[in-house]
Amino acid sequence: MNQRKASVIRGAGLGLRRAFIGPLCEHKSTGPCGDFMAGIDFMEVAPENWINVGGRFGKQFRALTEVCPFVLHGLSLSLGSPAPLDLDLVRNIKRLMDSHGIDLYTEHLSYCSDEGHLYDLMPIPFTDEAVHYVAKRIRQVQDILERRIGIENVSYYAAPGQQMREIDFLNAVLDEADCDLLLDVNNIYVNSVNHQYDALEFLRAIPARRIAYLHVAGHFNEADDLIVDTHGAAVVDPVWQLLDQTYALFGAKPTLLERDFNIPPLPELVGEVEKIRAIQSRHQGVLNTAEVGAEKIA
User: Fold this and answer.
1) How far apart are CA 167 and CA 69, in angstroms?
2) Phi-psi region at 161: left, alpha or beta (left = phi > 0; alpha = psi -120 to 50)
3) Which class is domain 2-296?
4) Would you give the end-to-end CA distance of the chain in angstroms?
5) Do 110 and 75 form a contact (C-beta atoms < 8 A)?
6) 212 and 104 Cβ atoms separated by less than 8 Å
7) Residues 223-279: tens digit of each pLDDT
8) Distance, CA of 273 to CA of 269 (rounded, Å)
9) What is the rounded CA–CA span in Å between residue 207 and residue 127?
10) Dihedral (C-alpha) 136, 183, 109, 206: value to the nearest 10 degrees?
11) Cα 29 to chain center, whole Å?
12) CA dihedral of 51, 53, 54, 56, whole degrees rounded to 10
């Protein structure tokens, strides 16, 4: 691997939605993401929504990437699918990253296609065979991108063919693929309720050196023992508490708020981002930045 200049993300971030772009571009200044978004340190977008986008939106997006650190979070690569990887998509993602100076791309440790899109994130079987299969595909993506990628631990509602624990499967993939982790704290909480395991025990087994950044989000309580991961509500107190415990273990890692629908006015979201920052402030004695893209694969 050849060393490349690292991109640093820090603090508290927000997933960018097109409805936010106008206000952001109107109020941008010398801050990380502008005075209007003084509490936002970095932003995240789905690359599928921005590949080959030109015109007004393309110009506005570039105006933002020039003043604010960005990361990419994919929706459709389908790492665990039995179908071949969409290498054209991977090459388009590389061009987008190169064009905008974005160093980190993450994807879900799941699959969402099988001879067509399934419109959901399906769980990869927790087996040794699946570890080898998905790790090989991750390495292939990293070779094309010439960057390490991050994989996200996902929420799931069934575990067909399970031969190992979720945490053992996750760690085995991280090791064999030699990739990073997008640690979703809400997904740990959701899975701990749905599958009745100890969320803190799960966290303690995470390799700190693999963590690129964190996600928090809201969910829906279907029943006492069933939570649906929706990203359509405010973050709840148990998830905030788990985030605090995560920082206690790993330091105030960069953390991004996800909200995909039922989107409230922007100031309300900024208020949740500021709550991330407030929790981070209690853990500032430990590492609170993350260098992403620190290695470029030869």
Assistant:
1) 30
2) left
3) alpha beta
4) 5
5) no
6) yes
7) 677 677 766 778 999 999 999 999 999 999 999 999 987 888 888 888 999 999 999
8) 6
9) 20
10) 60
11) 26
12) -140
Domain ranges of the chain: 2-296
Chain-centroid distance of CA 26 in Å reads 27
Q: Which residues pair with 10 in a beta bridge?
A: 289
- φ and ψ at residue 227, rounded to 5 degrees: -115, 135
Token pair 């985030």 in the structure block, residue: 243
Cβ neighbours of residue 185 closer than 8 Å, sequence gap 6 or more: 214, 215, 216, 239, 242, 243, 246, 255
User: Length of the chain, please?
Assistant: 298
| Overall pTM surpassing 0.70 (yes/no) | yes
Contact 181, 151 (CB under 8 A): yes
Give residue 210's Cα distance to chain centre: 13
The DSSP code sequence of the chain is -EE-PPEEEESEEEE--HHHHHHHHHH--SSSS-GGGTT--EEEE-GGGTTT--HHHHHHHHHHHTTS-EEEE-SS--TT-SSPP-HHHHHHHHHHHHHHT---EEEESSEEESSSEEEEEEPPP-SHHHHHHHHHHHHHHHHHHTS--EEE----S--TT--S-HHHHHHHHHHHHT-EEEEEHHHHHHHHHHTT--HHHHHHTS-GGGEEEEEE---EEEETTEEE--S-SPPPHHHHHHHHHHHHHH-S--EEE---SS---HHHHHHHHHHHHHHHHTTTTS--EEEES-EE--
Instruction: Please name which of 143, 16, 133 lies closest in space to residue 78, comparing C-alpha atoms.
Output: 133
pLDDT tens track for 146-169: 999 999 999 888 778 889 999 999
Q: Which of 292, 42, 15 is nearest to 145 (CA)?
A: 292
Q: Hey, how many other C-beta atoms are within 10 angstroms of the C-beta on 223?
A: 9
Give the integer Cα–Cα distance in Å for 140 and 59.
31
